């Protein structure tokens, strides 16, 4: 069996799908995207195509190393996201060839279902208590929300108090044991992050996410010593070598590699095993589409340290199209009592509506994240 075609498609709301077709009729699907740079990643996949045509798609490890190591410059968001989408598609093909879900080819499942959480609020969250209660009534046992709006290195305490009021309202509405994850989104710098993390302790959050950017990973230890809340990060890291530095630096309790950014299934499985050796949990990042979500669940199924899975159904970014719009087997992704069942279909477990994908690709999206500024005119972290 040889790879015959590699096709890319830009689809709303902000995703890029990769389709790999073989000469035996099998095809696999992946998601290769950096949100806001989807066209750039698409071009990178197209540049990598010459390394794939007429190659045996079953040799996933060799293909991964060719795409990563054969280039003098390696790593980073664009290259690794391109590799991620290709890798997912190759595993999809392999699972279909062997008539098994991908997790069966990686040692088999170590759980029967995967806990998931739901997003509430938007970039500037409001009415979060009502939204959290709605998710609880829908069966979810945990949510995640953005914590703050813009924050300067040193800022006023009214912004801190506003965060505390929102989280307090969720805790009051949902009860003591409902999971609340609070995403700092890299918007907070170390001086304010230590203050906010300490003050959030009283609400017993499930975790705080990206209290500072991984560019400043040496700060995680200081923040961890200032509060008793699990710290999660990793969506902006792209390889096991990035995570090696993070794990060595310490202070992190949960890693969040993204299956569409951090090298795909092949790489994230290795990253998860590294984290397990440090007694660190896994909660893959996935504010993306159905293929990325399916890839995450395949890895979750095989990792003892996987604790909870992000998914983007209902997230504020999904305008025009949502996760399940692009698949025909929607019933396989039903959330019951805060869990999703493991995929039963072969490969990644998604049946893609290719007709819709091709139609969307006729008018490619051009999604960009907003540009925020502080009152003084300087750029703020979004």
From TrEMBL:
Keywords: Lyase, Magnesium, Metal-binding. GO terms for biological process: amino acid catabolic process; D-galactonate catabolic process. Residues 125-230 form the Mandelate racemase/muconate lactonizing enzyme C-terminal domain. The keyword Metal-binding applies. Gene3D superfamilies: Enolase-like C-terminal domain, Enolase-like, N-terminal domain. The keyword Transport does not apply. This is Galactonate dehydratase. It comes from Simiaoa sunii. The lineage of its organism: Bacteria, Bacillati, Bacillota, Clostridia, Lachnospirales. The gene is dgoD.
